[in-house]
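TL;DR need structure tokens for one chain.
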Amino acid sequence: MRGAGSGARAKLAANLVVGLNRAALVEGLVLAEGLGLDLPTVLALLKDSPAYSAAMDAKGERMLRGEFAPEARLRQHLKDVELILGHARRAGQPLPLSATHRELLVAAIAAGDGELDNAAVIREIRRRGEKAHD
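>> reply
TL;DR here they are.
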């Protein structure tokens, strides 16, 4: 890495990947739930598969239990995603997955989840499923 602030910029790249890993985990769990699968079993299977990410260890059980006492708030992660997207815009690099992730976080915060742990993003995906069934 070169230049002043390169560590902070690298952290933004890492936060992008971690956030998207968390969002992918949420979608996989909600899909499994909709398919009638046992979520603890699915989480264990995912942890022992090529789909594995550290997000499963850090947030998977919390998502399953619905425990969202904040370790890292959704609102703060949105600020990180907005910084990421701002840097990407200036660099001329589209980040379509991060743009979608931003929209998901904005909706979760608008629904009142901003002060919850970022694992609570599962609540937004579930809300979207409920709306689709209305």
